[in-house]
Amino acid sequence: MNSAQANPALMQLEDIVLPQQISQWPMAPGYWILAALVIGITIAMVVKLKRDKKYHAPRKAALDVLNQLDIASPQYATEVNSLLKRTAMSYFPRQDFAKLDGNHWFAWLELRLPKQHHGQIGLLLNKRYQSQGLSQEETKQLQRLAHVFLAKSARLTAFNPNELPPSMVAKQNDKEDSCSQ
What gap in Å lies between CA 119 and CA 17, rounded to an integer? Predict the structure, then answer.
């Protein structure tokens, strides 16, 4: 005899019905917020990288030009000075940097150089119009200083003569006076 015939209550049972599988969609709101944050951060990083690349393009181009300059040329210091000034003018309004010369120009250049190089670039660039010019060692030193100046990836700061430390301008004045004697 069959167990179903023996117990009539078993005859009334139906097959087990499994519930539908839980769907992944729609996602919970927390996942949507997380996805939006990830997309937003990614877009912001791409935009920042593109902006930085565009910002540093003139500086990198100036580095290439510096490497192509003839270091043996008697006009090397003048070419380096004009390259540095053109680079500065590509970042700031022309009227701010075209008129800069002498102590203020050298002081602004030194703001971007490490402290151990302060006071050197002004002396070297001052010699560009002197009859004896730069020695071979001074020319190489000027090339290194210009390279350090252009290779630094920090953003350039605008020129404000009132913000220059008085010691920097005074130091330049003293060095110019000693060079002219």
Answer: 87
